[in-house]
Design goal:
Elements (H helix, E strand, L loop, with lengths): L6 E3 L4 H11 L7 E3 L2 E9 L6 E7 L1 E3 L2 E5 L10 H8 L2 E6 L2 E9 L5 H11 L2 H7 L7 E6 L1
Length: 145
């Protein structure tokens, strides 16, 4: 990802407003989305378009790693950002004012239950989202590179 490339904010509506405020204020607005619920901005490369796409996601921590959940509210298909990471795991993250490169991977079967609990402690609705879909909702580990 290069600084000269234009980033397209994938979502619409209130999420697009959230991302815009987050970027414009260096995370002063938007990092803490709700009391105790923090968001990061994830920029991926579109698997078909090759364009950079940015979305806001609730995150948790596992040591030095960041955790996000590919829930899409329990929709039957994975979110586009997750499919983009499967095609190209190199991405960029903004947490508050700090921006850095990450490599994404899907949590494995031994670690996922622990990481899922971490994320449902932050956003309990993830459990409900899982009951709405037949797919296994992934937990994605974002490791700094």
């Amino acid at each position: 990802m290069t600084a000269s490339e234009q980033v397209l904010d994938s979502p619409e509506g209130w999420v697009a407003d959230h991302i815009r405020r987050y970027v414009e204020t260096g995370g002063e607005q938007g990092h803490e989305w709700r009391p105790g619920v923090f968001t990061l901005l994830l920029t991926t490369r579109g698997r078909r378009s090759g364009k950079l796409r940015r979305t806001a996601l609730i995150y948790g921590r596992d040591g030095d790693d960041y955790l996000v959940v590919a829930s899409q509210g329990g929709a039957p298909q994975h979110p586009a950002w997750y499919l983009n990471l499967l095609a190209d795991p190199e991405a960029e993250v903004q947490v508050g004012a700090e921006t850095f490169a990450v490599r994404a991977r899907t949590a494995g079967p031994e670690e996922k239950p622990r990481m899922w609990r971490t994320m449902t402690d932050i956003w309990p609705a993830y459990d409900g989202y899982q009951t709405r879909t037949d797919r296994e909702i992934p937990v994605v580990v974002l490791e700094r590179v």
